[in-house]
Amino acid sequence: MKTPKKRTVKAQEKAMTLRPSGTREESFFELVYQVARQIPKGRVTSYGAIAACLGTKLSARMVGWAMNGAHKVRPKVPAHRVVNRNGMLSGRHHFATETLMQELLEKEGIKVQDDQVLDFKQHFWDPMEQL
DNA sequence: TTGTTGACCTCTT
DNA sequence: CAAGAGGCCAACA
Q: For strand B, is any atom closer than 7 Å to the CB of A68?
C-alpha cells in the first residue's frame, strides 16, 4: 500500500489526463469558466459563490487563479463580473488596466466607487440560482 | 523533484 | 470588534 497522501506530479498528471471518473478535461478551471460565463450582464458574483456552486467553497482561491487565465480562454470569461465577498475589485490590478474592470462594470450599469461595488448585494448573482 | 505563491473564504483567539 | 491562522487546488521557480 502506497500512502496516497503523497501526490507526485505524475499522479496529478495522471489524474488530469486519465480521469478515472471518465470526465475528460473538466477540471476545476473549466467549471469556473463555465459558471463565470453564465453570469448575466449587469450582474456580479463572488469567488466563494462560484466555489460553493462547484461544491468546494474552500477552494475559493482557485477561482481567482482560474481567472488568471480567463482572458486567455475562449470565449473570454467576464472576470470583471467576479469580485470578492466584500464586493471589492480585488482583481482589478490583474486586468489589462486597473480601470478596465471598473469601466466595464460601469458600462454594464454597475456603479463602482473606491474599488467597491455599490449595492453589491443588489447586483449579486447567485450561480446556484441558474444552475 | 520539492517548495512557495496566489484575483479567497471561514473559523478561532 | 479586530487580527491571525488554516485550508483548498494549481502553476511557477
A: yes
How long is the CA A113 to C1' C11 vector, in angstroms?
32
Residue nearest to nucleotide B10 (CA to C1'): A58
Residue in A85, A127, A86, A92 with CA at minimum distance from that of residue A106? A92
Length of chain A: 131
pLDDT digits (tens, 9 = 90+) for A66-116: 998 898 887 899 999 999 999 999 989 999 998 999 999 999 999 999 899
Q: The whole model's pTM is what?
A: 0.81
Give the Cα-Cα-Cα angle A80, A83, A72 (nearest 5 degrees): 40
**Strand B bases contacted by the protein (CB, 7 Å):** 1-2, 6-10
